[in-house]
Write a structure and sequence with these properties.
Number of helices: 13
Shape: globular
CATH class of the largest domain: Alpha Beta
Radius of gyration: 25 Å
Mean pLDDT: 94
CATH topology of the largest domain: TIM Barrel
Number of strands: 24
Largest sheet: 10 strands, mixed
Strand content: 15-25%
CATH architecture of the largest domain: Alpha-Beta Barrel
Helix content: 25-40%
CATH superfamily of the largest domain: Glycosidases
Length: 578
């Protein structure tokens, strides 16, 4: 067994480049309260990474995003954020948006958007307008984004209940005329056909064949004001139209809600049964085309009077149940699954100002939750033997809203939030996972059942590239309460025997690093920051190093590092060599 170099924290003051050891030890001053110290926390966590023990390919399941308001796509900050999403990983990011067929003038508001693709003249003849739609898809193309095209919602001219059509969130119901079935399925089929044909002609076969297509959103609840059977008909008609326009298209659904709910579980089963065993509404044959399966797991955070308690167990229960349902169908067991919306709760446009349980969104807790969730999704996919493609984070940006209002967004007024830096960390991971263990890890089965309510989950994902190893470590707990940091003892073994040194880079997300929210609060929470303040916020929103890069010794194929990791903090340690 190859030996990793060891170093004691007591030796830190005497560290110099001449020593045959290396230490990086950060003591973070955290606010300490009675509740903080009463919460259980391990004093240390031993993490072992085995570079020479590859486990499996590591695909970028995190590069999927979405949002309700498609017209924000081509706003200045929207274009900026698309570019940042595209830069997360060498593999292109996918983006899913609502309202691509919704009637309107293109003016966006919370939970609303429109393209005015289809209207009718006085005689009932179709009138197509692609101007707004092209702005959306041109922005995707310019940023290198691949669309996960959501076919919806119902144009006003086709709705069986067209009035009222535009909602006024947060006043009143959002489920207005756009949510109803078509009054003429043949006309709907033609709209979908023309929609797909236009995109194919504009962007070309080689590009469009990389896209994904799905039908509607959450048809098991009020997003669809029809019956399940009417949705199955809509699905069959829509898929037929897509494939007539572009036979190479990959189509899926149903993007129903989280199947931890029995009603949602039954809808998903019925849809899968329809696609496998029931009569197709278009061709009269048995079965419907289904290239991927999608549903929406959500968590359930609670406000506990003076802190947020995350509800990760509920989200994982929905994923577990959905995976089991898919695996129960021999026809679909190996069909790729996309979590079409995978989030800590269910309302991106509900701010923390009016919903205090959503106050997790501005700081590092959202980042740590994201790492925790993705790790356990990978576990569940492996355990259930299903093919997992990706998880859509339903978060983007809102225009003309206050700074750090507490919406579920990746950026606020062009300033990146800590959660985006969690995705940047994932993007630094290599494409081959290697063996890694943590003595501070909470077992996935326990997290799925109970959440993280006792000891924090100090967990790890390690990966590798040529001449490089990357280690992502996070310290997560459901309760957003101050607690002592945990000393992480990281040992990396199995490095090339002839390598004598490596370049260490240590990236960090916590209360003081990669955190524009903390910087903004320190400024006095300005809603009209000066140019200098805005520039400072922009810098603070980027992924930051904990310390300057440094050469570290590699002895007998091993390297060693110690550092303190705060609660809800993330570290990405990267070691490269020639």
């Amino acid at each position: 067994m190859e030996r990793a170099v060891r170093f004691s924290p007591d030796d830190f003051p005497s560290y110099s480049r001449s020593l045959p050891f290396f230490l990086l030890l950060l003591l973070l001053a955290l606010p300490i309260s009675q509740s903080a110290w009463s919460q259980p926390t391990p004093n240390s966590a031993d993490i072992q990474v085995h570079f020479d023990q590859p486990q499996s390919p590591f695909s970028p399941i995190w590069t999927y995003f979405g949002y309700d308001e498609p017209n924000y796509t081509y706003a200045v900050n929207g274009r900026k954020l698309l570019g940042e999403l595209s830069a997360l990983d060498p593999e292109p990011a996918y983006v899913r948006v609502h309202n691509l067929l919704t009637t309107g003038d293109g003016a966006a508001s919370l939970k609303w958007g429109s393209t005015n693709v289809y209207t009718e003249d006085a005689a009932g003849n179709p009138v197509y307008s692609w101007t707004i739609l092209d702005q959306i898809f041109d922005s995707f193309q310019a940023a290198g984004i691949r669309p996960l095209v959501e076919i919806g919602f119902m144009p006003k001219a086709l709705s069986t209940h067209p009035e009222p059509y535009r909602h006024n969130f947060p006043q009143g119901s959002i489920y207005t005329g756009w949510a109803y079935p078509p009054k003429d399925y043949q006309k709907w089929s033609e709209v979908v056909f023309q929609f797909v044909r236009h995109l194919r002609e504009r962007y070309g076969d080689s590009e469009v064949k990389t896209w994904l297509w799905e039908v509607w959103n959450e048809p098991d609840i009020d997003y669809w004001q029809g019956t399940p059977q009417e949705y199955f008909k809509l699905y069959d008609v829509s898929v037929d139209a897509v494939l007539r326009a572009f036979p190479e298209a990959r189509v899926g659904g149903p993007d129903s809600t989280g199947p931890a709910n029995p009603k949602a579980a039954e809808f998903l089963r019925s849809f899968l049964d329809h696609c496998a065993h029931q009569t197709n509404y278009v061709n009269g044959k048995i079965g419907s085309r289904l290239d991927f399966i999608s549903f929406h797991p959500k968590g359930s955070p609670k406000w506990r009077g003076d802190y947020v308690q995350m509800g990760i167990a509920r989200q994982l229960a929905a994923i577990e149940q959905g995976f089991k349902i898919v695996a129960s169908f021999p026809e679909w067991r190996r069909t790729p699954i996309i979590l079409g919306e995978s989030d800590p709760e269910g309302c991106a446009a509900c701010s923390a100002r009016t919903n205090p349980q959503n106050s997790y969104r501005n700081g590092p807790l959202y980042a740590a939750y994201t790492a925790e969730m993705l790790n356990h999704i990978i576990f569940l996919a492996s355990r259930e033997g299903i093919k997992f493609l990706g998880a859509v984070t339903w978060a983007f940006e809102f225009e003309d809203q206050p700074y750090f209002e507490g919406f579920r967004t990746l950026a606020t007024n062009g300033v990146d939030k800590p959660v985006l830096n969690a995705f940047r960390m994932f993007g630094l991971l290599g494409n081959e996972r290697v063996a890694a263990t943590s003595s501070g890890a909470v077992h996935s089965e326990d997290v799925i059942r109970d959440g993280v309510r006792g000891q924090p989950d100090i967990n790890v994902i390690a990966a590798r590239k040529d001449h490089e190893v990357e280690v992502l470590i996070w310290n997560y707990h459901d309760d957003d309460i101050a607690a002592p940091a945990t000393l992480v003892d990281l040992a990396i073994s199995g490095l090339p025997a002839k390598t004598s040194r490596g370049l260490l880079e240590h990236f960090r997300v916590d209360a003081n690093h990669s955190n524009a929210f903390s910087v903004w609060k320190d400024m006095g929470s300005p809603q009209s920051p000066t140019a200098a303040q805005y520039e400072q916020l922009q810098r603070a929103g980027q992924l930051q190093l904990l310390t300057s890069p440094a050469w570290v010794p590699i002895t007998q194929g091993g390297a060693h590092l110690q550092f303190n990791l705060p609660r809800q903090g993330l570290s990405l340690v990267r070691v490269t060599w020639e």
